[in-house]
Structures are given as structure tokens and as C-alpha cells.
Amino acid sequence: MNILVVDDEPLSRKMLSVLLEGEGFVINMAESIRAARTALIYDTPNLIILDVSLPDGDGFTFCRQIMEEESHIPIILLTSRDTLQDKLTGFKFGADDYIVKPYEFNELIERVKAVLRRSSYMQHHLVQDHIKVGDLELNVGELKLKIRGKQVIQLTPTEMKILSCLMSNVGLVLKRSRIAEIALGYDYGGASNVVDVYIRRLRKKLEIDPARPQYIETVIGSGYRMCKPAEVKQVTI
Do 2-125 and 127-231 have matching folds? Predict the structure, then answer.
């Protein structure tokens, strides 16, 4: 599997190269956004490891651009920026995981493997081109949700991942940790809070009254559930 490492620090690139090649991965390296874009023209990696602070731009913005252009490529942000707001921004812009420097070597390797496993699972088992539940129809490739047969809502990549997770398991209660594992990334601090944030955003987009959700139900003490079509009350506005 190919991994593209985008980092402007030579020592960091070298360390990642040694670690990942030791696990059997093929590593391509770029020291800037410009170099990364050139690399993406010639090869599509299975994973991108992206620093946030780059000499020619913001890694957060570049992450969002990649998601808009190549939404199937998973991205791990690897950075010294460690605030919760930075992490939330990373996930908002489409990152699949967020690792703070300095990191434990074994942990990074396991997170890389976990993101690749989840990406493969999403592509082959979870994410379909279209997922339909009642009057909700999710177009995964276009990041669009059609609701009540007419209204079309644009989703972010992370919103799509969480919603597709729920819609693919309609009627089942999914723990926050499970949603975070499938849709967001491997075991990181604050995962439950991040899931809650995105559920609130999804409700604002698809529920007529987010305070009284009809589609995404909170199961107290357990997690969230996508209601079956027969359970959704038809409300007109």
C-alpha cells in the first residue's frame, strides 16, 4: 500500500519513512502542498499523512480540498497543534484521524493500520453509492442528502461518514465509540464529544425540529440510532 507523507521537516519525514517502510508500506514524501499536489497527479495513495503547518499553506485547508477532490483517500493529520479546537477543525475538514506530535511509534503504526482497515471496510461493505432509508437518500460520492423527496442538503465528508454509518445500520443502537471507530478514526481522546458535535450538525440539516429529532434518536446511556421509516412521523412545514 502507498502512503503519501506531507511534512516540511526532513527529520520527521525520515522517521515516518523508516517506521512505515518497516511495516511494508511504500512511502512517497512531499515537503509542501505544491509538492503533494504534484505527487497526487502521478499516483493515488491509499493514505495521506499530512502536517498542519506547511510552508506554502494551511494543512487544514489542504485537507478539505483533498476531500472535495478525492474524498475516497483517507487522511491522518499529524501535528504539534494539540488543542481540542484544532482537532475539531481537522475532523470538520475531513480528517480520518488526528495524531499529536510527539507520538509513540507503535501507536502511530496501529492508527495507520486502523484507518486503512476502516477505509477498506467503508469502501467494500459500508458505503454504497446510494443509501436510502425512508424519505432520506444519501448520495455518497457527491456528499449530498435528498430529504423528503425534494430538499437536497450538502454534507461535509465527516458528516457523510457518520450519516452513512447510521443509515447502513438502521434501527440498531450504535455506541458513540463504535461510530467514532467506523466513521472518524482510531481511539483518540474526545471521540465521544466529536460524535455529539456532528450529530447536532446533522440534526440541524435534516430535522424539521432539531430539538425533537425524528430521524436520529438519542438512546440515553447507549448512543444513537437511525429510526426505521415506520417510526418517523410525517411532519409538514
Answer: no
Arch. (CATH architecture) of 127-231: Orthogonal Bundle (1.10)
Measuring CA to CA, which residue among 168, 141, 169, 165 is closest to residue 154? 141
Taking alpha carbons only, the member of 142, 181, 177 closest to residue 160 is: 142
Distance CA 14, CA 132 (A): 45
- Give domain limits for the chain: 2-125, 127-231
pTM score above 0.90 = no
Q: What is the pLDDT along the chain (237 residues), one digit of tens a residue?
A: 889 999 999 999 999 999 999 998 999 999 999 999 999 887 888 899 999 999 999 999 999 999 887 767 899 999 999 999 999 999 989 899 999 999 999 999 999 988 888 776 455 444 457 888 889 999 887 888 998 777 899 888 788 888 988 998 888 888 888 888 777 655 545 555 788 888 999 999 999 899 999 999 999 888 999 998 877 664 433
State whether CATH 3.30.70.1730 applies to domain 2-125. Answer: no
Distance of CA 222 to the CA centre of its chain: 22
Q: How far apart are CA 237 and CA 118, in angstroms?
A: 39
